[in-house]
Design goal:
The complex is a heterodimer of chains A (322) and B (448).
Chain A lengths: L17 E4 L13 E4 L18 E7 L8 H7 L6 H10 L4 E5 L12 H14 L4 E4 L4 H14 L6 E5 L4 H11 L2 E5 L4 H13 L7 E4 L9 H16 L9 E3 L1 H5 L3 H4 L11 H18 L2 E6 L2 H15 L2
Parallel strand pairs in A: 3-4, 3-10, 4-5, 5-6, 6-7, 7-8, 9-10
Antiparallel strand pairs in A: 1-2
Chain B lengths: L4 H7 L13 H9 L13 H11 L6 E3 L6 E3 L17 E7 L4 H13 L2 E3 L2 E3 L3 E5 L5 H14 L4 E4 L3 H9 L7 E5 L4 H11 L3 E4 L4 H13 L5 E4 L5 H16 L11 E2 L8 H13 L4 E4 L4 H14 L12 E5 L8 E5 L2 H14 L3 E6 L6 H6 L5 H10 L2 H4 L4 E4 L7 H7 L4 E4 L7 H7 L2
Parallel strand pairs in B: 3-6, 3-12, 6-7, 7-8, 8-9, 9-10, 11-12, 14-15, 16-17
Antiparallel strand pairs in B: 1-2, 4-5, 13-15
Helix pairs in contact in B: 1-2, 4-5, 5-6, 6-7, 10-11, 12-17, 14-16
């Protein structure tokens, strides 16, 4: 007796917007490569009922000051490149990253409190050292964010970079800078569907095209709130596919920052033997956080370790294979 | 699929005898639909109706038990595609595959490691679920010898892998009453395998490669032979193919209520993997997306621990974050002059903070506020961890009776609460501690 199986397929009515990062010489920039993300018309990789036109992209994090607080596993790997953002970005490109995520942390008032001119020099050096598209983050303190992001936006005019984080407290300045110089914004909200929608509405009300917004739903690492991020992302993506316009933005997750903050990745003294080899464990911490959030709909994952980049890129290639 | 009240009503006697305690059969039907009444309360319902109602109320994915005793594994009985819709109920079992071609001593040593592996996270002990033994030698006697060795070494659930029914029979003989999972019935051997499953009262895995119709036909034949505790293997091994197959199986069971495939799923993420990394990431995919049993090729704590952590994350009830009881906790035997730290009752927060305090060796009071299971920042944003709540906890748990000073350390993430807390706790000194638990030992060293 043949048992006919009819595969249930969803008829989605909406799709994720396509967002392009970076501009080539022909487009008014100097990037050797551009990256387009989004465009999905089904849940992650369910190509039997919709299309996934672009693979998720992998960014590597670069900072403009030596990351003394980083795990020794990371510092040993990168070596002296960590002392020079341009060298670091070059090495990141060689390590297979699709995007450079540059953090201007030295501008933090409780740190070196560097100024706009310093930010401009760093952005120019990184743009010169790598042909990849760029995301530039401020130090995370509203006033200094505004100062250095505006300067960075101007310095990178035409390059179609992304400015982050664009949050409730500083969105006006960030969006204005993106509008003035043709960039994108990373709209970050704390693990909540409605807050994410609301910020997107505020941003588009300022006339920034929705095709220039990436959303950061706030990342929880494996073991440290991953499930909250995972479910909010699934809900955002389901809302996008059912036609809720202000949820149809590609999603970016700051995986490396969170995964390497976990005790499991950061330290190896006084931890249980059942945690296993430190270097392998911390690599898995980052790769599993990334791959699980990619299953929930992440379009860009920002990582810290090149070995994770290799594994996550390999996973993405397998997920895109038909 | 659940029936509506009206559909149930059609199956009832419609006599309105009231013996069930409800005024009418329709009212009783409505209660049944809402699961507020039991069908057994109706003395007159026909056997035919009973069978129909039982079939309709059976879970769309069968609950299957592997193994016996304390370490038995239950999988299946899931009700949603996305965890936010309700929750995922039965975490997938992680098994490690061993072969009967390994030297016996090595086999036994690995068994011992797997059996004794335990890792604790947020107060919950996590372990490997069981061991898969593959008849790689092809020899029934060797297989029997290894199964016997495993039975004497471990009480964990076993998964017996052999395509030859004679070898499976030999293995099962050594695992009598242990309800191991038999892997696997295929189009070629299903009659013999089903007979073995029936005889040994063991669950049976059913495999048909790459064709869900063939898999459904096979489970129906086996069910017809009287074996119903089944686990399915769609036989797809690659990363994309397994995601698609597992999603389709889950949807068929839940959306289409398609009984022939309403069983837990077994996966082998390491088969056809080019590296251990690929196996690990694929296993993570199967944890998030719908596996019931995952068989790994490697036993390595650096892989197992992150995977068990992911399993715990994904299978946490979204409505009920894991919490600890609020109260004043003593760490390292504090005295009246020991430091007093305050934080939330979200279990991850509690265990991170308590772990660091304990590790520091410093006697400390830990005041745990009822933030309804929210973390420090989330609780603060939601008004569940604010100055009033902290002050209330100081009184509620009678802190002044045990702590001889009036200095309280709040988490660095909520430094902004200092002012309000000074008002709520007159005469207290509010100190701001570190933002991260990991920095607590250094902070405690300087505390005076």
């Amino acid at each position: 007796m043949p048992t006919a199986v009819e595969i249930p397929k969803e008829k989605w009515t909406g799709k994720v917007r396509e967002v392009k990062l970076g501009a080539t010489a022909a487009e008014g920039g100097t990037r050797q490569k551009v990256v387009t993300v989004g465009g999905e018309s089904t849940l992650p990789f369910l190509t039997f009922e919709g299309s996934i036109p672009h693979p998720p992209a992998v960014a590597l994090e670069v900072q403009d000051r030596y990351p003394a607080d980083w795990s020794a596993v990371l510092r040993d790997f990168w070596g002296d490149a960590l002392r020079d953002p341009a060298a670091w970005a070059k090495k990141a490109e060689e390590s297979g990253a699709d995007i450079i995520a540059l953090k201007l942390l030295s501008a933090h008032p409780e740190g070196d409190n560097t100024d706009a001119a310093h930010a401009v020099a760093t952005v120019k050096a990184v743009l010169g050292a790598s042909g990849l598209p760029l995301i530039v983050y401020g130090p995370g303190q509203a006033e200094k964010d505004n100062e250095v992001l505006v300067a960075a936006a101007e310095a990178a005019k035409g390059e179609r970079i992304a400015l982050g984080n664009c949050e409730d407290k500083n969105y006006r300045t960030t969006v204005a800078a993106a509008l003035a110089h043709g960039h994108l914004v990373v709209a970050k909200t704390p693990i909540d569907v409605n807050l994410s929608k609301q910020l997107n509405i505020l941003i588009t009300d300022m006339r920034l095209d929705a095709e220039r917004i990436l959303v950061d739903p706030t990342t929880g690492a494996l073991g440290y709130g991953l499930e909250y991020t995972y479910s909010v992302m699934e809900r955002l993506r389901l809302a996008a596919l059912t036609g809720d316009s202000m949820t149809q933005q590609p999603m970016i997750c700051t995986v490396g920052e969170e995964a390497w903050r976990a005790k499991e990745s950061k330290v190896n003294t006084g931890v249980p033997a059942a945690w296993g080899d430190w270097s392998k464990r911390s690599g898995n911490w980052e790769a599993i956080t990334a791959s699980t959030l990619i299953q929930a709909g992440a379009d860009i994952v920002v990582l810290r370790h090149p070995d994770s980049v290799k594994l996550v890129k390999k996973t993405i290639a397998s997920l895109m294979a038909q | 699929m659940a029936l509506s009240g009206l559909e149930i009503y059609k199956l009832l006697p419609k006599t309105n005898c009231k013996e069930c305690g409800q005024p009418t059969c329709l009212a009783f039907a409505m209660k049944l639909a809402q699961k507020q009444a039991e069908l057994s309360n109706c003395p007159y319902v026909s056997e035919e109706s009973k069978a129909k109602l039982a079939a309709a109320s059976a879970p769309p994915i069968r609950l299957v038990t592997v193994g016996t005793g304390e370490r038995k594994l239950e999988v299946g009985n899931e009700t949603v595609l996305f965890r936010h819709e309700k929750t995922f109920f039965h975490p997938p079992g992680l098994f490690i595959r061993l072969k009967d071609t390994q030297p016996l001593s090595e086999f036994e040593a690995t068994l011992e490691q797997i059996k004794s592996y335990v890792v604790e996270r947020v107060g919950i002990k996590m372990q490997v679920s069981g061991v898969a033994i593959e008849n790689a030698s092809g020899d029934p006697a060797t297989f029997a010898q290894y199964v016997a060795a495993a039975r004497t070494k471990t009480d964990q659930p076993l998964l017996l892998m052999a395509s030859n029914p004679a070898a499976m029979a030999a293995g099962l003989e050594k695992a009598a009453d242990a309800a191991p999972l038999i892997y696997a019935a295929t189009a070629e051997n299903w009659k013999e395998m089903a007979a073995l499953a029936a005889k040994s009262k063991a669950p049976l895995a059913v495999r048909a490669d790459g064709d869900l119709s063939a898999l459904a036909a096979l489970t129906e034949q086996i069910k017809g032979a009287g074996v119903e505790d089944l686990i399915v293997d769609p036989g797809v091994r690659d990363t994309h193919g397994s995601l698609v197959a597992l999603t389709q199986l889950r949807r068929l069971a839940l959306r289409s209520n398609f009984r022939p495939l309403g069983y837990p799923i077994i996966t082998f993420p390491g088969e056809q993997a080019e590296s251990v990394g690929e196996e690990t990431v694929r296993a993570a995919e199967h944890i998030a997306k719908y596996a019931g049993i995952i068989v790994l090729e490697h036993f390595d704590p650096a892989i197992i621990y992150p995977l068990l952590t992911l399993r715990q994350n994904i299978y946490t009830d979204p409505q009920k974050p894991i919490q600890v009881s609020p109260g004043l906790y003593e760490v390292n035997g504090p005295k009246p002059d020991s430091p007093l730290l305050v934080t939330t009752n979200f279990s991850l927060t509690y265990f991170s903070v308590a772990g660091e305090v304990e590790g520091s060796g410093k006697p400390t009071w830990l005041l745990i506020v009822d933030s309804e299971g929210m973390s420090v920042l989330t609780g603060w944003a939601a008004g569940k961890f604010d100055a009033a709540k902290i002050a209330k906890s100081v009184q509620q748990f009678n802190v002044p009776a045990k702590v001889g000073h009036k200095k309280i350390v709040i988490p660095g993430l909520v430094a902004g609460l200092s002012g309000e807390l000074e008002e709520e706790l007159p005469g207290w000194e509010i100190r701001v501690g570190p933002r991260e638990a990991i920095d607590i030992p250094a902070y405690l060293k300087t505390w005076q």
